[in-house]
Amino acid sequence: MIDLTLMLKVDAGEPLYSQIYQYIKKEILNGKLSSQTRLPSIRALSTHLQISRNTVDLAYQQLVAEGYIYSKPRSGLYVNDLELETLSSTYLSNQKPSTNSVQNSPNFRFNFRYGDVDAKHFPVATWRKISNQSLHKMDLFSYGDPVGELDLRIEISKYLHSSRGVNCSPDQIIIGAGVQYLLGILSSLIGQSNDSIAMEEPGYDGVRKIFQHNGFNVHPIPLEIDGINIDKLYESKSRVVYITPSHQFPYGMVMPLAKRMQLLKWAQDQNGIIIEDDYDSEFRYSGKPIPSLQGMDNYHRTVYLGTFSKCLLPSLRIAYMVLPQPLLELHNKQDYRLYDQTVSQLHQNTLMVFMNNGHWEAHIRKMRTVYRQKHNILISMIRELMGSQVTIIGQDAGLHILLHVHNGMDEQKLILTAEEEGAKVYPVSAFWAHQVDAERSMVQIGFGGLSHEDIIEGVHSLYRAWFGNFNTIT
């Protein structure tokens, strides 16, 4: 048993959890607690010291977050194998714990990461065959079209028209290595006459950073039950808005037709621009899809963004942007065609043939079924095990949900206790521009990359972490 009775000082002006943290860290750095030593359980140590379990838990969380100890599910907490000869023990022993540290380790049995896709059902043989054929046919010594290969842009325009009601010619499509790259180009176009952009609150933090790095003031606009608050959008005086209407990120609501019409009217009234990010519109599991805003826009004020990352391969880094005619003319006038294309010609040509031969739409149909099954298993297991102890947010579309957990834990505690059971879930607070307004007991759960069995076992792990015996580490 670790002896801390002489070290803890209630009136020392330093929290008890910090005193425990500092003591154990020093013992590890001094070699008194050697690698693979198992620490006392939270319950055992709190009883021994006659302090609350939460105090011991906070100290252990900090030690885990900084890598001094690690958790073995259903076994306990153990001292890590540290290469102490490369560290300055004097420096380390004087460091104070950070209240915001979060463990950053990829070694989890159940990783509920949003953005992971199902690799098992990808048609690798077909893709490899087409890629090899493209390699022999294409000109390897050409930089290619700066805005993307014409044949691929033709295929994308046909697909967007049939699946999302997008009205565009291939000339309006610009291909680039990811949505963030394309937003950088767009920022330079619209920044010539605008200095602010409105965004949903909460919204995608990666996009918010792109706008901020390009010198825009970002105005967070609160959400209503059916999407962005139009009245607050008018009040912001911004003439540009970035939205995710088909599956709001991260809350998941689908913007109804009536609000879409209100948004288009806002753009007309304000002489504004709508940036419509349709990032995972292929995956809707109930009801009929609503056509894109771009397809409903008769005044050419909507920029449409899409990506192949969620439904094909993230590693391809292929995204596309459809510019309305006024911005397209500005793009051409400003010589943006002098920019080199950021997507490999080989990948572009392979994707073009993949789409032209019907493999793309067949793959989408298959993956819609695959992800619907995973989605349904995830939802049913959460309801079966957790019931009214949680609120599920954003179901029926996309590759993630949000889970509001009603057990008194905050976001960090939910994440850390899940890690102790071998499951990784993710924070949502970063999606708020004003993080003081963020939900305190909510996490993001992605399911695209997990098997059915892992989803079932992973939800059981989350249940044990959040609603079972909180002190199962023995």
Could you walk me through the main structural features you see in this protein, from its secondary elements to its overall organization?
There is one protein chain. With 474 residues, this protein is of the alpha/beta class. The protein folds into three domains: 16-93, Orthogonal Bundle (Arc Repressor Mutant, subunit A), CATH 1.10.10; 110-117 and 362-467, Aspartate Aminotransferase, domain 1; 125-357, Aspartate Aminotransferase, domain 2, CATH 3.40.640. The protein is 40% helix and 14% strand. The chain has 16 helices and 16 strands. The chain has helices at 16-29, 42-49, 53-65, 89-93, 124-137, 150-164, 179-190, 205-213, 230-236, 257-270, 293-296, 325-333, 345-356, 359-386, 411-420, 452-467; strands spanning 69-72, 76-79, 110-111, 173-176, 196-201, 217-224, 227-228, 240-243, 273-277, 302-307, 319-322, 390-393, 400-405, 423-424, 426-427, 442-446. The strands form four sheets. Strands 4-11-10-9-8-5-6-7 form an eight-stranded mixed β-sheet, with helices on both faces. α10 links the parallel β8 and β9. α2 packs across α3 (53-65) and α7 packs parallel to α8 (205-213). The protein is globular.
Question: What would the average pLDDT be, to the nearest integer?
Answer: 85
CATH architecture of the largest domain: 3-Layer(aba) Sandwich
User: How many domain regions?
Assistant: 3
Provide the CATH superfamily of the largest domain. Answer: Type I PLP-dependent aspartate aminotransferase-like (Major domain)
Q: So what's the overall shape?
A: globular
Strand content: 5-15%
**CATH topology annotation of the largest domain:** Aspartate Aminotransferase, domain 2
Residue windows where pLDDT falls under 50 for at least 5 positions: 83-105, 470-474
Number of helices: 16
Q: Major sheet: size, sense and barrel closure?
A: 8 strands, mixed
Class by helix and strand content? alpha/beta
Number of strands: 16
CATH top-level class of the largest domain: Alpha Beta
Biggest sheet, spatial arrangement of strands: 4-11-10-9-8-5-6-7
Give the termini separation. Answer: 13 Å
